């Protein structure tokens, strides 16, 4: 009887995780429709409408008591304030990357994100570096150096996406809050700035809402739904299945991004790109095998890297 009950629960968790990461992976198609709108304005709408949508969800699920509990804790409020600005930086960078035809570089950022989480855990949480972790990080670093040589510049989009979401995930790990409550607070903190920016543009007649057809304005408003729904699906999935499974599923997002960048948006993918991604893919394979215990670490088991969604 127990086994029969567990199967649908596990399946529901796997499907929730797959759907969350697939939505994140397909988001470049959504942002491309809006690419004639400046990235900063899209970001402002994403923040504002995410706040509206998550507030409605919080109200509908009776979660206001959780919100008031967090408001009473100064430490959690301070970290929510910090998370709000970090996730806004991540969202803005991602939107810019998609609309400036840097989808491949964005996918690289989310491939190396789990390894950046490990680095932050070592530097901030003072965790030990295992042998296989060290090898994985060195291989990923070689991959980044190859693409730096190819570009003739540092791939700042990839590094900023990886670092910002890794830092966001680390803070969320250190100060745990309900996903909906956390997102309401994080978007509320930056929402006034976003709303003032949107209102200023509309008053000048330069805003997207007054210059575009109604269907496109509605699509812009839906950015709150496309931001919040995968986060809620992820939260459901992570409660129902093992973290290691979520770690495997997380690579759905950058893989879809990479396929879209190469085959749909026709971005340039050279031999240097292939070599760079090759090193990163090998690094992730080693990291994942060590994380699930196939490769034995000399230090402690890798922390929960790859267990937070990519903020897309």
Q: Which structural class do the helices and strands define? A: mainly alpha
Percent range of helical residues: over 70%
If you compute it from the alpha carbons, what radius of gyration comes out, rounded to the nearest whole angstrom?
20 Å
Q: What is the first-to-last residue Cα distance?
A: 40 Å
Mean pLDDT: 87
Kindly state the number of beta strands: 0
Q: Main beta sheet, described?
A: none
Please tally the helical runs, counting DSSP H or I stretches of 4 or more residues. 14
Number of domains: 1
The coarse overall form would be: globular
Query: What is the chain-wise order of helices and strands?
Result: HHHHHHHHHHHHHH
């Amino acid at each position: 009887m127990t086994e029969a009950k567990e199967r649908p629960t596990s399946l529901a968790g796997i499907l929730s995780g797959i759907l969350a990461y697939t939505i994140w992976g397909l988001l470049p198609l959504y942002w491309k429709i809006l690419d004639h709108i400046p990235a900063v304005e899209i970001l402002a709408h994403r923040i504002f409408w995410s706040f509206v949508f998550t507030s409605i969800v919080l109200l509908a699920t009776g979660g206001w008591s959780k919100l008031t509990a967090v408001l009473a804790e100064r430490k959690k409020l301070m970290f929510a304030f910090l998370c709000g600005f970090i996730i806004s930086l991540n969202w803005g960078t991602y939107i810019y990357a998609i609309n400036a035809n840097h989808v491949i570089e964005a996918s690289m950022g989310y491939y190396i994100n789990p390894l950046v989480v490990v680095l932050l855990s070592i530097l901030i949480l003072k965790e030990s570096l295992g042998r296989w972790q060290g090898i994985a990080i060195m291989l990923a670093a070689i991959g980044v150096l190859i693409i730096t040589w190819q570009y003739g510049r540092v791939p700042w989009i990839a590094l900023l996406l990886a670092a910002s979401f890794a830092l966001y995930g680390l803070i969320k790990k250190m100060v745990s809050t309900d996903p909906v409550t956390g997102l309401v607070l994080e978007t509320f903190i930056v929402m006034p700035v976003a709303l003032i920016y949107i209102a200023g543009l509309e008053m000048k007649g330069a805003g997207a809402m007054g210059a575009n057809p109604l269907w496109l304005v509605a699509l812009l408003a839906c950015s709150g739904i496309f931001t919040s729904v995968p986060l809620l699906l992820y939260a459901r999935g992570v409660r129902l299945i093992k973290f290691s499974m979520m770690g495997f599923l997380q690579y759905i997002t950058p893989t879809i991004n990479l396929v879209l960048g190469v085959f749909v948006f026709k971005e340039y993918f050279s031999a240097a790109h292939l070599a760079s991604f090759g090193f990163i893919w090998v690094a992730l394979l080693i990291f994942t095998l060590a994380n699930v215990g196939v490769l034995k670490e000399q230090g402690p088991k890798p922390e929960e890297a790859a267990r937070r969604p990519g903020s897309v």
